[in-house]
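User: Can you help me understand a structure? I only have the sequence.
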Amino acid sequence: MKQWLSDRAYPTLRTLLPMLGLFSADTLCAQLPESDVWLFNISKKDNHYQVVDPLNITNRPGYDNQPVFTGDGKSILYVSIRSDGQADVYRYDIKSKLQTNLTKSKVSEYSPTILPDESGFSAVVVEADSAQRIWNMSFDGSFMRFASDVTDSVGYHAWYNADTLLYYKLTEPHSLHALDLKSGKDAWICDHPSRAFRKVEGRSVFIYAVKRGASIEFRLYKPATRQSVVYATYASANEDFLWNAEFGLVKSENADLLRFNESNGQWETLFSLAGTGINKITRFAFDAKNKRLVVVNNQ
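Assistant: Let's start by predicting it. Here is the structure, written out as tokens:
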């Protein structure tokens, strides 16, 4: 039986991407990992899933990363850094295979995240004065407003709901917070978090992870009670994961996607992408209907 603990029971990233905005374009390009965004279709037969039709949708030297499907599943937003050294949010139309630079700004944008009402997306913006704040944007790439004007030094973020913003703060040590946008109340969740954290569909909790040496500890957190409980652990420092309404907790490990079987407490291989051109999966996302999968392949 899981025992729920206070969120202060465990006070205990790669923050390279947002922080790269502080460097020159030449230094930035020299430090970036080579990465591509790949798209797969997911087929299901006799309750068995497999990935098919691998397609490298970026297929160029350089940095392409942080993909997310739009709510209708017709497009993918991702971050790309080209020769000017700026990080912009691009949109890939799945049907036409056309790519569009949405933001085209003089600042850098990272971590595009679909807004809860799907009216646009939010992103971590490295501003001209080096502040790193979250902005809401429309799908044409225009800046609408701050998601919150009181947050700074943000590395990553996710939405628990329209009124609650989860964000990774570049403190020392790095920390995870939940911000109530109506009241302005900022709740510390933990130190040493992973860069991934997600709302758990169908439950009044979100899932996050704490890095403990060479292992990752996944925890469920109840905002209503400010309590958390250990959900799963994995003996690897790879910190990328998500929660899927059908598959549950899914994490990347080398060229595989693993799911945690809640009924027996074991990790199982959901998809193995070895042999499809994938070497190491970092970020990944499913569309809302689990018909498609997008992954980042680090070279």
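Now, to help you interpret it: The chain has one domain: 5-12+14-298. Residues 1-30 have pLDDT under 50 and may be disordered. Let me know which part you'd like to focus on.
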